[in-house]
Amino acid sequence: MTHRNNQDLALKNIHPPCQSACPLHQGVRDYLLAIATGNFDMALAIIKETNPLPFVCGTICAHHCEEECRRNDVDKPPSIRGLKRFAVEHGKAKVPPPVDGPKVRGKVAIIGAGPAGLTAAFDLARLGAEVTVYDREKMAGGAVRHYIPLYRLPDEAVDQDISEIAEQGITFKYGIELGKDITIEQLEKEGCQAVLLAMGLPVSRGLNIPGVEGDGILYALPFLQDVKRSGFKFTGNPNVIVIGGGNVAMDVARSSLRAGAAKVKLSCLECDEEMPAFRWEIEEAKEEGIEFNNSWGPHAIIRENGKITGLEVVECTCVFDDQGRFNPKMKDDHKEMISGDIVIFAIGQGGDPEPVRGEIEIDDRGNVVFNSQKMTTSRAGVFSCGEMVTGPGSAVQAMANGRLAAQAAAGYLQGVPFDCASLEEVAVLDKLDAKVVEEVVHIERNAIPMISPEERVRHFKQAELGYDIETAICEARRCLTCAAGAQQDEDLCVHCLTCVRVCPYNVPVITEEGKVSIRNEQCQACGLCLSMCPVYAIKFRAPYVEEAVNAIGPAVQKLVDKRNGKPAILAITCSYGAFALPDFVRKEQNNVAVVRYPCVGKLDSVHLLKAIELGIDGVVVVGCRDSERGNCQYKDISYWAEKRVGHACDMLETLGMNRESITYTELDGDEIDKFDQVIAEAAEKLK
Amino acid sequence: MIIAERKPLEEIAAMAAPYKRVCVLGCNTCVAVCMAGGQKEAEETATLLRIHRKKENVDGEVEVFSIERQCEFEMIDEVLEKLKSYDVIVSLACGVGVQTIVEHVPSLRVLPGLNTTSMGYPTEQGVWKERCLGCGDCVLDLTMGICPITRCAKSILNGPCGGSAEGKCELGKDVDCAWHLIHERLSAFGRLSDLEEIQPPKDWSKSHHGGGARTSVREDVRIDRG
Amino acid sequence: MIAGSKLEKTINSGQFVVTGELGPPKGADLTQLKHHAEGMRNHVEAYNITDNQTAIVRTSSIACGATLVQMGLEPIIQIVVRDRNRICIQSDVLGAHALGVKNILCLAGDHQKFGNEPGSKGVFDIDSMQLLKGLKDLRDEKKFMGGEELNGELSYFLGAVENPFADPFEYRVDRLEKKIKAGASFIQTQCIFDLDRFERWMEMVCERGLHKKVAILGGVTPIKSLGAARYMKNNVSGITIPDELIERMTGAEKKKEEGLKIAIETIQRLKEIEGVAGVHIMAIAWEEVIPEIVERAGLYPRPKV
A204-349: what CATH class? Predict the structure, then answer.
């Protein structure tokens, strides 16, 4: 179990693009690095620092992070969501203890146990508030619990998260509906000082077109809930027509297949490229055999003897107007008929103002009057958040919004006014320079294994299988480690240009004033420059290199102290690829101290000599060699690592010592078992 | 830029052996750039000295730090108390730095950790070549920017001599004939006729041969209140 | 007439000139040197006395030159700029003159790195061009290099060396001209093995009429063995030996005789080349063979001047 205390790793003042893009600003880079180096517990601990629903997000997150990843300019981003799922499944870490700070006192009621409400509850409880969450359903989770189909999100994932949220000291009250079973006023009377409304968008929209009255018409949310919670199956094997092109429409279509539809036909206004659903949802739906009818608008539901026979559609030539507003143009004389027995509307969801009517202000369009800067409603002490005020979005966006509302409520309880505008803005990294992009090694993205389409449509079991350990390590290694790398101490720098010449990625540049500028935001974190700087003016922003360096001394000391007559050897190995596999990480060692280095390219010959000074008999540096089981994403590593070891050997020789006390070797992923042999050979040379 | 190389470790170790408290003092300017005496090299030198002293059972300690330039009194003053706490200072500055410390603080014992070689530039990463002898009377205008004083082994002014072959010096195939290069450049610029003139003997009086260490003075920036 | 030396007279007479070369010993016993000098008394006009050649310490060229003067022979003393500054050189020249030396050959000298005192400081205060000019001015203008007046008069015949086989080839004629301008009355060239290249050079020399301003003595070295040929080809800078010549030596049964033949043929061919005023025979460590070469090349007896 890992309790992660080192909060410095999540760099405060600049975010990699993934972290900026994530509504929760999760430390993506850092948990990918942890996975890549085999520290799965650490990965989960990092995730849990910012995310109260890691299982849910690891399973269904819309991963806005991947869209902004700078690897998009090189090849494809790492599968961050898949790696998050890997971390929650393979790591062990508790939610970190709350950060010290002023505590909040008071009772808070949160209406709605969806992602927004749960996040707000989690945050407020950790700040010290007495939190009760009310939900009209019998289980927490909101949309992710009731609407997202089981083949995407199994209940166990949601359960895991809810139970850990509950551990923060939150009371859940189920089956209680606002406006019916309780009112805001009642809550206030019971002593609640703040109320958070997070009721989501529970109403499915339909269309008032001919034929809509009568049997065979279904609406997305009730349908999804029936399928998921009540195991609804179609009677017979009807042909199902789904109207809509968003993510919910995909869920409806794919659930329909699994619920016994013979054929599912989807009809939407948008052409293929314009469909609002995520691309991977569209692809998976297509794989499963859903028929897509793009650029058609529903015109009438055709019935014979009251029974639906099909949907008449009219061609849609354009969905959005010049200003980008939804304003479809139809070509009325071009009609088609899509045959089918059932029509399901999946064209959007709306809020339901009825539970709060009369207690807080509602505008003419039926929305709660809301100040999105202050997260407030018209009633003092009543806040709102999530899709009911933001409109439809992803779960993680709702969570982030819930976090804001929690901050607003906490401020209210502490008497400190809250305004989103006053939140600290974190700098967003620039794009990668084209010259840097050119040099970055391409590594193919590892697809997350899935059950075959033929198999998966037969049941509601989770379709995605998740990464195995080896693949996860390789996939995590594809992270470009943005903003973690070289940072120049301008006071120390002597502008010798060594870094300029050594960097394989054109990261350091010479300014017009003739000064060296290491563009940290462009750095690929290979660290070759680190030990070549003659004045140690380059440091990594993230502390992982320093941690590895600092590990050498104690490791050597410990081994030397208990030396048993045999040569004591320090092995400095790569920490990626096969060196990150649990078998290697947990390997029992005799007379060997292993320090895993986040790439031996970061090695300094002085560190090798210092180990000798501390009394170690021999040092073996083990770099990684590319193989089918994983490639190094860096360049020139062997060349420089070998030179640095060679230099240390030369130095030993000038002192009249055995130059073979320090050796360099490389192992590829398949050769990791030869590690013992490498050590034995090194020991032999010391005799 | 001043180019230097670290002295062989055994030489440094032998020099420092009689002293208990040793300070390896790096210099973070010229010799840092040519990777001979900056903080990193100082760390390495100190580490090697410690390993050596442990091996040879020499008592005492070896510590290390660096200053920006050892050739400035004021910068030495900033660390003077610290320097005084050592029995000896192994200076990783060029010969100038060593002498500056000694001149400024005669009580300190300072050993040279480097051999100062030349003034030059890195022709490639890790390779530094001499390009100026400091002769005090630059002739680069006559020789198209190629210094025959430095780059010709004989420093001749009316070259190339008879040893020039295939653009190389008689000293060896790895040494360019400076006069060959000058000839090429003059030819390229249509100035070969420049060579018709017999260059008179050089006035070496402006060089070190003119009377030992030279002094340069700028009266207008000098602080001399009498 | 400048110095009235036998060398100068022979050159002026228009007859084909022969000079030889003697290397002072790495010791003070001059018996061998005298013996070699005596051996070619009637075969050469004058003897080059090398100045610590290849930077190896030997008896001074001036001392050896003076010894030859005592024997009634005529030295051409070599002066290199490697070991002496302008003070010493001018002083030595005065001394040599006082001892009866009438011919001076000005050179830069092989770099000290090659010799037996590789750690010595190369003086190179002035270069060979400046040396020529300085000695010419000392003689003709009666002024030391520093500008002061010379007391009395000096008369010496100044020569220089040129290497037609050095690069850049096209510049070698320019440099010859420059040396003439600086004061050279005669030129001894580097050993000639590549006659074609030498001919090309001479053509350029004659085109510019330089052969009329200076006497060009072609350098000839008899090759004693195949090893010597190979050594010179690979290790002596400024010498070019064509592959055919190496092959010829390789194929020859009697290497020494073949070497002599080559030298003799070279001289015979040089005699035919326009502008060549004579030959300078450098028989390194094989001085005793010079008379034979001179005779077999048809240059004996030497003219009386």
Answer: alpha beta
A535 touches chain B (CB under 8 A): yes
Structure tokens at A344: 């399901």
Residue C204 inside a domain? The answer is yes
Residues of chain B with C-beta less than 8 angstroms from the C-beta of C111 = 153-154, 163, 170-171
Instruction: State yes or no: cis peptide before C168, omega within 30 of 0.
Output: yes
pLDDT of residue A5: 37
CATH class, range A107-202+351-422: alpha beta
| CATH code for position C206 | 3.20.20.220
* Alpha-carbon distances, residue C224 vs A522, B48, C228 (angstroms): 69, 55, 6
- Band of pLDDT at residue C121, cut at 50, 70 and 90: confident
Q: Could you read off the pLDDT of C22-65 as tens digits, one per residue?
A: 999 999 999 999 999 999 999 999 999 999 999 999 999 999 99
**pLDDT band, residue A4 (cuts 50/70/90):** very low
Q: pLDDT (tens digit, 0 to 9) for every residue of chain B, 226 residues total?
A: 999 999 999 999 999 999 999 999 999 999 999 999 999 999 999 999 999 999 999 999 999 999 999 999 999 999 999 999 999 999 999 999 999 999 999 999 999 999 999 999 999 999 999 999 999 999 999 999 999 999 999 999 999 999 999 999 999 899 999 999 999 999 999 999 999 999 998 888 888 888 789 999 999 999 987 7
User: Quick one: pLDDT band at residue A8, thresholds 50, 70, 90?
Assistant: very low
B183 — contact with chain C (CB < 8 Å)? Answer: yes
Q: What is the crossing angle of helices C243-251 and C226-235, to 10°?
A: 160
Chain B residue numbers with beta carbons less than 8 Å from the beta carbon of A655 are 9-10, 13, 48, 51-52, 55
Residue C153 covered by a domain? yes
Distance from CA of residue A138 to its chain's centroid? Answer: 28
Chain B neighbors of A531, CB-CB under 8 A: 40
Which one, of A127, A124, A70, A126, lies nearest residue A94 by Cα? A126
Whether residue A514 lies within 8 A of chain B, CB to CB, comes out as no
Question: Of A552, A613, A653, A659, which to mutate for an interface test with B (greatest number of B Cβ within 10 Å)?
Answer: A613
CATH 3.40.50.2300 fits B2-118, yes or no: yes
- Nearest Cα of chain C lies from the Cα of B2 at a distance, in angstroms, of 22
Residues on chain C touching B167 (C-beta within 8 angstroms): 167
ipTM: 0.93
State which CATH number among 3.30.380.10, 3.90.190.20, 3.30.70.20, 3.40.50.2300 fits the domain covering A486-540: 3.30.70.20
- The answer to whether residue A7 scores a pLDDT higher than 50 is no
Which of B9, B40, B51 is facing A612, going by the closest CB pair?
Answer: B51
**3-class SS of residue A579:** helix
Q: Where in chain B is the domain with CATH 3.40.50.2300?
A: 2-118
Interface of B with C in 96-115 (CB under 8 A): none
Phi, psi of B5 (to 5 degrees): -130, 150
Considering only alpha carbons, which residue of chain C is nearest residue B200? C130
B28 contacts A654? CB cut-off 8 A? no
Domain count for chain C, please give it: 1
Banded pLDDT at A276 (limits 50, 70, 90): very high
C86 inside 8 A of chain B by CB: yes
Instruction: Report if residue C49 sits inside a domain.
Output: yes
Indicate whether C282 belongs to any domain. Answer: yes
Whole-angstrom distance, CA of residue B24 vs CA of residue B88 = 9
Chain C residues with CB under 8 Å of B163 CB are 108, 110-111, 163, 166, 237-238
Pick from A254, A241, A313, A251: which is nearest to A277 by CA? A251
B69 to chain C, minimum CA–CA distance in Å?
32
B5 lies within 8 A of chain A by CB:
no
Q: Which residue of B has its CA nearest to C145?
A: B201
Per-state percent for chain A, helix, strand, coil, to nearest 5: 40, 20, 40
User: What are the residues facing B66 on neighbouring strands?
Assistant: B26
**Residue C104 lies in domain:** 6-296
Give A200's pLDDT tier (boundaries 50, 70, 90): very high
* C-alpha span between B37 and B27 (Å, rounded): 6
